[in-house]
Amino acid sequence: MKKQYDFSKGVRGKFYRENLKINLPIYLDSEQLEFIQKLAAKKRKDVKTVVNDLIKTNMKLAQVIQ
To answer: What is the pTM of this model?
Structure first.
């Protein structure tokens, strides 16, 4: 790395997008991934749908016990 960088020609907010939605990758431990994959196959759904359904259920439970 340089000791000093020149940002004099930089443009503030050049890449900022107010309504940008970012889908972040989520990495599951192998045991949990295997469980989710089996559950998805059993329900004939994709892994993404099963994970989202599980998270929605946990969110509802968390709201009830608060």
So the answer is: 0.65
